[in-house]
Structure formats: structure tokens, C-alpha cells
């Protein structure tokens, strides 16, 4: 074990403004920058640095915050007067060929992991955006590839290594420290320890990935949404189904894109899976493509284009009641986008949403997931874009059963994130392992929640 003198640390009081700002927000994806200022940033490149940082925080009497990928819209890692541990330089991907279990560091992205696994004919259903770190993604549940059927990414977590709030290094799984393991699958940014390593079960990589897409005028959003909703719940289970309101270069007005991406073992199976949408699509579309070959690498490129770097973001989301009249509830969200780079997303979550979940903190979902991704470049448009998100979500919220942690900002809106009993249990686990709130929890308005956590009440 090294000494604290060996820590790669940038102190606010001792560094140049340029060095400090680079460390504070240089890896924060959202350029709507937080006005919060840690006392120092530790740029950890090994596990020992994380342990030393926890001990330093104890000595200094300050909180400690964690950054895996820096992709949270609300920049949860950046906290006033805390010691920020940035894991961007701490990297590990180690595959056990026999078991198919891969050990990864939290800063590893889905693209990095799947690029390494591709050579072995394997896949992990990580995040769609190529630069999302697995740490935050898995802790909040992980709405990954084909989540509607393959299940939540956190269901593939077999064990974790953690550093606790008092500096201990522990292995957590179903048998050891199982309450932390339970919490790690769904606690999100309120997890009461620091994950240093995930052990993930991989899947065979389907050899044929193909996609079909149908672009409708925004005036036909209701017809498009009603169509896709009518077929989604019983559709082929290896197919991801999404409806997006967005602007495309070829069209002056926004459009509605209904997309089906299937993961199969042969071209014939892919065509068979996608044929029902080709046969049933309403004849109202502007453009379409059927069973077009693609790959995870190509999909990551497209996701990166849809979520550009160096932009400002404001996001929110809901799970809608299963029986919601989705086409009416979401019409404004899909057809009044405030900027050309913004988009609204509906994911079909059945059949996963109809299956019993394993015993884990993640316990909230429904058939219909809706997320608003408002994207712009100039600070002068902040009020326009932020108010659009608030106004649209205020109208949708009465139809909600809860919210996904990953696209949330607890400073702006609080609602339900877990089942009733799971929420209570999670707050108890948090108090057991982090009673003083040494490890920063949920960033609510004023950063006041501390060890208490979130109320988990539907609003």
C-alpha cells in the first residue's frame, strides 16, 4: 500500500485554474457545466489510489465523490467541498475464457468492452452511447442492448469489488456482503461504497445484426406510435424496438422514426424476425429501409452522432402506466422539439417489464419508457430548452409510475425510483455502510440528502 504522498491529486487551493478546471469538468460530458467545486481531484490509475483517497477524505473530514465515465447529465460526481475520485485512468478488461466472465473497471465504456469481446465472439449488453462508463450505467440498472428481452445489464453482474466508506476492500456477491451486492444492482449514484471492479457474465455475439426503419411525418406521430405499440409486446424477443422524435438533415420539420434492430444467428432469421413490421407498417411513411445489415460498431457511431460531444444537455424521463394512451400522452414531446439536435425517445420494455425481477434494488419499470434528450450549443438557449423539458414533463408526469435513475436530475424533480419495499431496504443498506454520508449520495436540490437518501414517493 502506498502513502497519500503518492496520490495523483490536484488541489483546488494549490493548482492553476487551468489544471483544476481540466480535472474538475474536463471529463464531464454535459457542457452545461455545474457551479460546484471539489476541494481536490484524485486521478486514480490503480485501486490503491482509491483506498488512499478514502483515507485522505477521512483525515480531512470531507466527503468523497466518484466519477466513472462523466456522462451523468446532472454531473453527479462534481460536489462542493468534496474529494473527487476520477477513475478515467483506472482501466481493466480481463476475460476468463472458460466462464465467459469479464472483470472490468468502472470507467470502461460499452464500446471499449465490446470491441475487446468481439475477438472472442462475445457481447455484453452495455449502454447504447459509446462513451458511457459501465460504473454509473450498471449501478443504476443498465438499460442496455435489447433490454426489452435480454433483461437489465445489472442482471449480468456476478460480483463486485468495492472500497467501503471506512477504507476496507471487499468482494461482494450472492454469498459475501450480499446486501452491498443487492444494492449495487439498482442503487444508482447513492450506492454506499466505491465499486472498483465489476465481474460480468458475457453473451455469445449474434453473427447477424440487421435493422429496419420507418420515417413518418410528425403529423402522423399518433398513427406511427399506435402501430408500433400494437405489435411491440409480442414481437420477436431478440429485437430492440424504439420510436424517436427527431430532426433529420433531409427534412425541414421533425419526423418520427420507428426503428427495429434484431440480433440473430443468420440472415434468414433476421429477415423472418423483421418481416411482420414490413407487412404491417401503415402506408404513411416518408422513407423506409428493411433488414439493413449493421453491427455494434456501426450502431455506436450512430449513437455518438445522436449524442454529440461539446454540447449542452437537459434530460428527463418517465415510466408510463402500461395501459397509457401513449400516442396522446407523448404527442407534444415528439412533435415540438426545441432544437434541431434534440430528440425524444420511447423504448418498448415488454416482455422484460412483465417478468419477475431478481431480488435486487432495481425494481421499477413498465412497458413504456420515455426520455427527453434536449441538446443545444449556446448558453443563451438554456432557458428555452430547460423550460421546454419542464413544461412537457409536467404534463406527462401524471401518467407516470416512476422514473429511471440514469436520465434523472434529482435537483429538479423527485419521484419514485424503486418499489416500495426495495426503496426502504436500500436506504437501510446505505445507512449501514455509509452512516456518516462520507461517500456522496444522491445529488438533490442543495445536496442535502446525505445518508438519508431519496424519499421514493411518486409525484
| CATH topology-level name of the largest domain | Vanillyl-alcohol Oxidase, Chain A, domain 3
Number of spatially distinct domains: 3
Overall helicity: 25-40%
**What summary fits the major beta sheet?**
8 strands, antiparallel
Number of strands: 19
Rg over CA atoms, rounded to whole Å, is 22 Å
Broad CATH class of the largest domain: Alpha Beta
Structure classification: alpha+beta
Q: Estimate the strand proportion.
A: 15-25%
CATH second-level architecture of the largest domain: 3-Layer(aba) Sandwich
The spatial strand order of the largest sheet comes to: 15-12-14-13-17-18-16-19
Mean pLDDT: 96
Between the first and last Cα atoms, what is the distance in angstroms?
Answer: 47 Å
- The residue ranges in which pLDDT falls below 50 over 5 or more consecutive positions are none
How many helices? The count is 13
Q: What coarse outline follows from CA principal-axis ratios?
A: globular
Amino acid at each position: 500500500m502506498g502513502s497519500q504522498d503518492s496520490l495523483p491529486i490536484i488541489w483546488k487551493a494549490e493548482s492553476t485554474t487551468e489544471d483544476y478546471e481540466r480535472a474538475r469538468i474536463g471529463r464531464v460530458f454535459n457542457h452545461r457545466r455545474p457551479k460546484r467545486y471539489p476541494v481536490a481531484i484524485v486521478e486514480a490509475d490503480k485501486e490503491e489510489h482509491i483506498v488512499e483517497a478514502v483515507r485522505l477524505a477521512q483525515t480531512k473530514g470531507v466527503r468523497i465523490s466518484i466519477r466513472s465515465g462523466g456522462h451523468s447529465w446532472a454531473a453527479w460526481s462534481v460536489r462542493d467541498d468534496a474529494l473527487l475520485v476520477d477513475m478515467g485512468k483506472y482501466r481493466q478488461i480481463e476475460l476468463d475464457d472458460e466462464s465467459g466472465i469479464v472483470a472490468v473497471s468502472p470507467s470502461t465504456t460499452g464500446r471499449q468492452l465490446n470491441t475487446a469481446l468481439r475477438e472472442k465472439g462475445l457481447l455484453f449488453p452495455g449502454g447504447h452511447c459509446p462513451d458511457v462508463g459501465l460504473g454509473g450505467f450498471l449501478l443504476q440498472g443498465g438499460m442496455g442492448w435489447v433490454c426489452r428481452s435480454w433483461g437489465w445489464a445489472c442482471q449480468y453482474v456476478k460480483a463486485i469489488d468495492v472500497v467501503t466508506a471506512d477504507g476496507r476492500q471487499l468482494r461482494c456477491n450472492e454469498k459475501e456482503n450480499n446486501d452491498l451486492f443487492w444494492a449495487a444492482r439498482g442503487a444508482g449514484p447513492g450506492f454506499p461504497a466505491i465499486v472498483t471492479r465489476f465481474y460480468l457474465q458475457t453473451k455469445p455475439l449474434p453473427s447477424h445484426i440487421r435493422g429496419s426503419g420507418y420515417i413518418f411525418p410528425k403529423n402522423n406521430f399518433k398513427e406511427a406510435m399506435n402501430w408500433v405499440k400494437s405489435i411491440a409486446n409480442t414481437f420477436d424477443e431478440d429485437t430492440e424496438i424504439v420510436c424517436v422524435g427527431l430532426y433529420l438533415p433531409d427534412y425541414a420539420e421533425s419526423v418520427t422514426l420507428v426503428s427495429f434492430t434484431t440480433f440473430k444467428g443468420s440472415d434468414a432469421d433476421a429477415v423472418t424476425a423483421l418481416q411482420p413490421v414490413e407487412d404491417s407498417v401503415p402506408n404513411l411513411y416518408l422513407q423506409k429501409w428493411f433488414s439493413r445489415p449493421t453491427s455494434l460498431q456501426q450502431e455506436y457511431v450512430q449513437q455518438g452522432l445522436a449524442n454529440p460531444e461539446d454540447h449542452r444537455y437537459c434530460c428527463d424521463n418517465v415510466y408510463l402506466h402500461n395501459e397509457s394512451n401513449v400516442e396522446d400522452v407523448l404527442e407534444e414531446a415528439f412533435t415540438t422539439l426545441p432544437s434541431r439536435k434534440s430528440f425524444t425517445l420511447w423504448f418498448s420494455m415488454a416482455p422484460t417489464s412483465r417478468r419477475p425481477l431478481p431480488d435486487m434494488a432495481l425494481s421499477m419499470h413498465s412497458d413504456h419508457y420515455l426520455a427527453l434528450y434536449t441538446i443545444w450549443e449556446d448558453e443563451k438557449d438554456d432557458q428555452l430548452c430547460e423550460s421546454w423539458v419542464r413544461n412537457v414533463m409536467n404534463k406527462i408526469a401524471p401518467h407516470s409510475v416512476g422514473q429511471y435513475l440514469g436520465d434523472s436530475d434529482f435537483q429538479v424533480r423527485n419521484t419514485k425510483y424503486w418499489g416500495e419495499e426495495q426503496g426502504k431496504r436500500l436506504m437501510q443498506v446505505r445507512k449501514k455502510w455509509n452512516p456518516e454520508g462520507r461517500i456522496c449520495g444522491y445529488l438533490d436540490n442543495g445536496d442535502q440528502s446525505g445518508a438519508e437518501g431519496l424519499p421514493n414517493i411518486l409525484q
